[in-house]
Amino acid sequence: MRLIETPLRALGQRDRETWRALAAPNGRLTSPYLLPEFADLIDAERGDVRVIIAEENSAPVGYFACHRADGGVVRPVGAPLSDYQGFVAAPGVSIHPHALLDAAGASALVYDNWTGAAPGRTRERAGSAVIDLSAGAAAWLETRKGLHKSHFKKIAQRKRKAQREFGEVRIVFGDPLGERYAALKAWKSAQYRASGLVDLFSVRWIDGVLSQTAARAFGPFRGLTASLYLGEELAAVEMGLAAGGVYHSWFPAYDPRFACVSPGLLLLHGIIEAAEKLGVSRIDLGKGEQAYKAYYTDYEIPLSAGRALAPGMAAARIAGWEIAEAAGAVLPGPLAAAPLKLRRRWSQTASIETDFGPRLKRFAEAFAAAPKRLAV
Fold it and tell me: What topology is assigned to 2-126 in CATH?
């Protein structure tokens, strides 16, 4: 097998068509994040996206989209925004991690949401929750009501409460003026700051990707913006990616003033009811242990977080973090988790900041927020 590394922008039409086909085995798309169009969105803002092409007998059999290696570390395209990552390949095709690293010019690959056989050492495994609407929204709802009667009864009660107290409940799709994305951004940024997390919307390239996604309302790969209005008030907004019959919920947020009527869930129900008109047969809620997902999830797609290493300075630095984490485990109380949380913050900071100065500044901010983060 031969591996070829090339800038995304140099990729030809044949490769793009092959990539799309491999991302949808048996005609069923795994995730919009694994398509070349997602890599295009990221590259339009960052300009550093590369593709490693695997060839057998001069024919392409696999694609891995990533960012240009930084300090010996290579990351999947879009990290930390990409809720699915991996090597898109024909069945039975695999690449040895060292060969992948050699092609990328790196000694470490760090990933958070790898689908399929994960390279190197896996730190964590989780599942991305999927709502299967292939039998139709009405049939799905009847089945879920049978399994979780009290939950769905409660949602119906909250909808009636919302109508009584705030006005008509409406779901609106699209965002032609960008005002709904602006509201989503404000709510989500406030949430990030309150919890001591990095405000992703304050990162220029991320804000550019998300605003462009919200504005991309048409085509086989598109952004889907859904908004909940209570009377004349905008109460919740959710923005995600849609392609191949899959809608992946990406960034949901709501106005805290309406928390008593569960605006996020009312909006989700509206998306489910409109799924057929939207050309959606699966809704991917992403990974995470939010309690509400238990009532909606039909199955999960396994995802892995971890790293693959080859000899080099980047691998040595990552090994140093792991030693610190192991040593920290003997510390009392919340201090035991401090090295792990700092390592995660550094990894996230390194992935979102392409310049060293801003990277150090954000990491310093992590220390300022440490008391708040260690308490959760």
Answer: Aminopeptidase (3.40.630)
